Amino acid sequence: MRVLIRADASSAIGSGHIARCLTLARALREQGATVAFACRGLPGQQLDRLAELGFQTFALPASYPGECAQSIEAPLPWQADIAALQAALQDQPRFDWVLVDHYGLDWQWQQAARQWAPRIAAIDDLANRRHAVDLLLDQNFSGTPQVYAGLIDAECRALLGPHFALLREEFRCPPIAIRERASRVLVNFGGFDAASQTYKAMLALSAFDDLEVDFVAGAGNPAWTQMQELAAGRGHWRLHAYVGDFSRLMAEADLFIGAGGGTSWERAALGLPTLCISVAGNQEANARLLAEAGMHVYLGPSEQVSAEQIRQAVAALVGDYPLRQSLAQCSRQLVDGQGASRVAAALFEMTRNPLRCAGDDPATGEFTRESKENPND
């Protein structure tokens, strides 16, 4: 099976889309698939890393004519993106699947992408636009059939909820031990932390001389210089630009302070008690629902959370053993670490089943579905 993944990473978009697609790509490769990535050459892109990991890569332009912004939810000029893919994929064999993980692309792009594969899949967690796909994955607690009603075809297979959370193999493990009093904290707000929340957490944690703290921020963090200055002379603090064993740091921590993105499911699989701050609008609903389910403590959107509020929350949680134990138990009940294998299995299963679509040519097996103005018609 051949799969093409269309996703981007940048200092503005973050690295979450590539991270979860990479997890799925590894699961697919373990089961025998060949996986390639098509990504734009944006500042902070990860094409080189993907190539080093053995995946074929196709570089797309960093900007398109008429493009207004490059924020995480900004619509892309889909015709320009398709044209760029046509140039990049010349002479390439057809794929079995094109999988897109991009908030800026919708049903129009997906219909056009069928020129490269008979089946299209999408990863989403916004439920704010129509899709023309054969399979849709939303691994979030907020992903329900109700929110996607009218946004996907009735024939679309929907994989919804944390049962399908895309977690790396190292998170298929026993839960961490919950100690009577928390003594070690891990802080991370993604690969770029454009909102400088790591520095805010540093200001909050400067009041705790008895806590060992690891800050994983990335050297490209906008507050890197200030963080280095604040960490200097504090032997119980460790400031990391990059770590190759992030899962080990998570397993050794008693408390996590971070965003509401993909690490939510990693923390849940480990049963790691968390203070969550959403750093993007697309994280807010899921962060709130997870808090309501008793899986973490949600402090709110980053622009509304002060260093003093973080300090107070840490002070309350480090000594509250029953609450941290409850957070851990609720998390482990929801996430078991097998989601990537389940999604890969679904893609393989659907590939083995013959397509039954109007427009298929039974003599040649060629897929000739015509584009529709409205994919829900």
Automatic annotation (TrEMBL):
Residues 367-377 have a biased composition (Basic and acidic residues). Residues 358-377 are annotated as: Disordered. The active site is at residue 17. Pfam families: Glyco_tran_28_C (PF04101). Residues 212-318 form the Glycosyl transferase family 28 C-terminal domain. InterPro entries: Glyco_trans_28_C, PseG. One of its GO terms (molecular function) is hexosyltransferase activity. Substrate binds at residues 168, 266. It comes from the Bacteria. NCBIfam families: PseG. This is FlaR protein.
